[in-house]
Amino acid sequence: MRPTVADLVLPGAARIMGIVNVTPDSFSDGGRWFDPDAAVAHGFEMVEEGADLLDVGGESTRPGSRRPSEQEELDRVLPVVRALADAGHAVSIDTMRASVADACLEAGAVLVNDVSGGLADPDMPALVASSGAPFVVMHWRGLLTDPDERPHYDDVVGEVCRELTARVDDLLSRGASADQLVLDPGFGFAKDAAHNWELLAGLEQVTSLGLPVLVGTSRKRFLGRLPHRPGAPVEPDADPAPPTDRDVATAATSLLAARAGAFAVRVHEVGPTRDALAVQQMVEAARAR
Predict the structure, then answer these.
(1) Is residue 266 flagged as an active site residue?
(2) What share of residues in the chain are helix, strand, coil (percent, to 5)?
(3) 166 neighbors 119 (Cβ within 8 angstroms)
(4) Cα 173 to the chain's mean position, in Å?
(5) Nearest to 270 by CA among 27, 95, 14
(6) Which one is catalytic: 76, 167, 220, 246?
(7) Could you report the per-residue pLDDT of 236-287, keeping only the tens digit for each?
(8) What does the alpha-carbon distance between residue 19 and residue 150 come to, in Å, rounded to a whole number?
(9) 190: alpha, beta or left, given left = phi > 0 and alpha = psi -120 to 50?
(10) Which one from 97, 221, 225, 266 is the annotated catalytic residue?
(11) Average pLDDT, the chain
(12) Is 96 helix (H, G, I), strand (E, B) or coil?
């Protein structure tokens, strides 16, 4: 039987979702795990390091990246999903295509993570309703074609909450059930650095909407512009630190997300976030004593 969202939520602690990119053009790892065998081995390593879920994706959402065909995406992700699921691990499929989600659920995936929240593929809401699978509804205003494009918000936290609520209402009207749905505020998607920091500061407003929340800040561009770092760029338009230099900042933001009530955090490097969340658990245990 496929687990429900309630089965995936760990009371008192945030889950860690490890990212398994099966793409040649990811912004974060540059195709390091593009080979299916390498991706599977990487997933096993993440589980050993403490990942609770493995999020397998075959399409880069880097601004300007080319979308793979449906068959290309299936060829990339299906062998990886199947191998990891057959080994007994909880696997999520990161896709905007209902056909890919359906095939991966059949192959053993337990959750669908759609960065468009069901907007990119008109068939996705029906699949969500018919499959009963947990579904991540991310806040989305389309994919940026230019990384320097500046989206506009008057109140980013309030607007994200309202737009997520509208997406949930739409999915419910199409037959999904509330106990299937997970929210994702969409850090880095149609948001500039200031928007991301404001959203992180106001994250409790998102977690108070009443559904589990997944947070993915990992290696995002805004974490590469921390002004206190030695040699780090201070100007907002300066080139950020490389993605692999952002894992400590990722762990810090993941800890803040957990403190705000997130059900899970999605990361490229499990170890730093595992340790950060363990510190929180030890402090809370000490308080309880």
Answers:
(1) yes
(2) 45, 10, 45
(3) no
(4) 25
(5) 14
(6) 220
(7) 566 678 888 899 999 999 999 999 999 999 999 999 999 999 999 899 889 8
(8) 27
(9) left
(10) 266
(11) 89
(12) coil
Dihedral of the alpha carbons of 238, 244, 245, 250, in degrees to the nearest 10? 100
Angle (deg, nearest 10), helices 124-131 and 156-173: 60
DSSP state of 172: H
Instruction: Please give the torsion angle defined by the CA atoms of residues 17, 18, 23 and 29, in that order, rounded to the nearest 10 degrees.
Output: 130
**Crossing angle of helices 270-288/247-259, nearest 10°?**
40
Closest CA to 16 of 286, 260, 258, 281: 258
- Structure tokens, 173: 């009207």
For position 59, what pLDDT does the model report? 92
Q: 109 with 90: CB under 8 angstroms?
A: no
Picking from 248, 187, 198, 253, the residue whose alpha carbon sits closest to that of residue 221 is 187
Task: Go through 70-98 and write b for each residue having 16 or more CB atoms within 10 A of its CB, e for each that does not.
Answer: eeebbebbbbbbbbbbeeebbbbbbbbbb
116 vs 140: CA distance, rounded Å: 5
pLDDT digits (tens, 9 = 90+) for 119-150: 999 999 999 999 999 999 999 988 655 556 66
Tell me how far apart the alpha carbons of residues 10 and 111 are, in angstroms, rounded to a whole number: 15
Longest dimension (CA), the chain: 55
